[in-house]
Amino acid sequence: MSMRLCIVVATLGLPVRLSAQDAGVARLDGKLDVETQTVVLRTLDSARTRGLPMEPLVDKALEGATKRAAGARIQAAVSSLLGRLEAARDALAPNPTPRDITAGADALAFGATREALKAMRAIRPNESVAVPLGVLTQLVASGVPVGRATRVVADLLRRGARDEQLIALNDDVRSYVAAGASPEVALDVRTRGLNAVLPPPGAAGVAGDALPGALTTGQKKP
Amino acid sequence: MADRRVEPGPVVERAIEALRELPPIHGDAIGRVVAAAARSRAQDAASDVDDLLPEPAAPPARYARRLSMVAAAVLLAAGTVALWRATHASSDVTGAATASAQPIVVAVPASRDLNAESDPIPTQFVFDGRARRVTLVGDFNNWDPRATPLEQEPRSTLWSVTVPMQRGRHVYAFLVDSVWTIDKRAPVARDPDFGVTGSVILVGRP
Lengths: 222, 206
Hints:
The complex is a heterodimer. Chain A is mainly alpha-helical. Chain A is about 70% helix and about 0% strand. The C terminus of chain A is likely disordered. Chain A folds into two domains: about 70 residues, no CATH class; about 110 residues, no CATH class. Chain A is elongated and about 55 Å long. Chain A starts with a helix and ends in a 27-residue tail after the last helix. In chain A, helix 4 runs antiparallel to helix 5 and helix 9 runs parallel beside helix 11. By secondary structure, chain B is an alpha+beta fold. In chain B, helix 1 packs across helix 4. Chain B folds into two domains: about 70 residues; about 90 residues, Immunoglobulin-like (Sandwich). Chains A and B meet through helix 1, helix 2, helix 4, helix 5 and helix 6 of A and helix 2, helix 3, helix 5, strand 6 and strand 8 of B.
């Protein structure tokens, strides 16, 4: 450890990054077997060199440890998440927050497309999209087809819907589904209700026009 | 109704760019920030060592490392300031804005309000059931079974805890007498990675 810090001090460019990694290392200490920890640390290094947030990777490893998953499964999960984080970071460019990137990675895991993430960023260039992406993920998890869920969330964002309105929409859809409605019908009903209180498209002063056709595709992760 | 919005002209746009420029940074301010950060890091590291590391490093070695880190940070900050001054001394955008004959009043577009977005939102978790001990695990507390115990209401089967959480989607579960238990009132979070379902909460409403 001290050798690493000496290298950091000598190069003057990495102390913040390495200290972040060290925090992750400390959190992992004693939670994983040696082989798994080695692989996870290598993945963290890879994330650092690519400029990706490491916290979600540490969290994923700790989640696996708490769930008593086998080491190989933890390694696979962390490696898979690294790929999704990179895809999400690129799709949410230029300046996504770590929470945006994590939310994007979650959405990709549930079948959202990179184009969907790009569309969300285009509509909200200067605000976090963590909540809209979380709502998108949950709508898909509720059974709404990913293309439909993407279009609805993007449309509501374009009309200036606030985070709390999106969360309320998701809560209502879930309660309607629990009461027996189909996910799509529940989403249609609640979207109409929300549309009634939102300004028409273009009046909210938000960016983004037509969604790319690719938004309607996307396979749900098996 | 006619759209009353007026597209900003090039002068206004340049003024906006000028207003976006960072203000000058003073060397003593940097020193104060670095010193405060060093103090904070020292306190955090001390508690982390107590909690997580079985064999903490000897104090002299730790102080030497921290001094090295502080020195590196100071040098880095000084270099950054010098670079900023060098690159902004002859900025065309700044010159254009200050050379304007008329004062320009513009509404700077709302930039990313990192403070508002990163402010944690207190979020309550409630479990109803008989148990000797209930704790909360999730992606907001390192999935640490000891980090977030729930408190039982007197003469009740209700347990609760309030946790500051970032906006967005979070996955969690209760450990009820060490048994993994999902929140029956929350959506289920399927788990293709480990095959252990949890519960989901979307945080965004204060």
